[in-house]
Amino acid sequence: MDKNFWRERRVFITGCTGLLGSWLTADLLALGADITGLIRDRIPQSELFRSGNIERIKAVYGDICDYELLERTMAEYEIETVFHLASQSVVGIGNRAPMSTFEANIRGTYMLLEAARRNPTIKGIILASSLKVYGEHPELLPYTEETPLRGLSPYDVSKSCADLLCQGYAYTYDLPVIITRCANLYGGGDLNWNRILPGTIRSVLHGERPIIRSDGTFKRDYLYVQDAIRGYLMAAERCADPALWGEAFNFGMGEPVTALDLVKTVISVSDYPEIEPIILDEVKKEIQDQYLASDKAKAVLGWEPQFPLADGLAETIEWYRVFLEEM
Predict the structure, then answer these.
(1) pLDDT band at 203 (very low <50, low <70, confident <90, very high)
(2) Superfamily of the domain at 3-189+222-254+288-306
(3) Phi then psi for 124, rounded to 5 degrees?
(4) What angle do CA 183, 228, 116 make, to 5 degrees?
């Protein structure tokens, strides 16, 4: 990463209270960036608030679907780089409430792209996409950037659409947007307890048996949030290259693990190594295996993950230990 690139750079982060947004904000502040953050809900437990970093940025309160707000914010703060992280990111909520998921993830994306297109100060946009855009291709694992986008569940469909919208704006309007497709992110600050990692960590820290909703055999790739942030920053620094506009980059470990093995790994480093998980085997219409190949990110951006799963989990567990003691 180029520290000089970020010094006093005017950055707009949507979704800055989430797992990725909170830590990206912290890292960009450390690099000297001038940050404006879009916040829909004030969440005191968010790492952005707990760290005090909310006091170090320009906070704009509003909805990602508010076009006038987006256009005003980018114009008045003369934004140069945009990180579009705001989304409804929970698969289960997407199944229960598809309309709100489509509004946030699809409409919110084209509102942001349109506002950015009309702002002459914009030099680069990074879209937080996901491996979920690919849907199910068991014959094509690991997924490369050439794998067809075939999301089927409401959340997956919404991310596939947002991804394609960015490609369309880059192709049609020469908008300097790059797409990042990350594996399952984890790290301290994820407050969606129904996800396997924060839920499992909270359970074992309380000495309780963690719950696996599937049969435990589903394989996923887990990427530590700091590795994802490095990828985002490295991609953003390349937005001046028109050859990369509309391009997508996978960021993953390339080492998928089953849900059961992941939970057992957390248990093994806890204070209760004798605990056994509860396997519900109640998941329906879930993709069996999903993981990414990141060769393109290595070849073009020079990105490689730096945190093995065990190291990332150790830092994550310690964050939750402190967090839960403060609750």
Answers:
(1) very high
(2) NAD(P)-binding Rossmann-like Domain (3.40.50.720)
(3) -170, 145
(4) 100
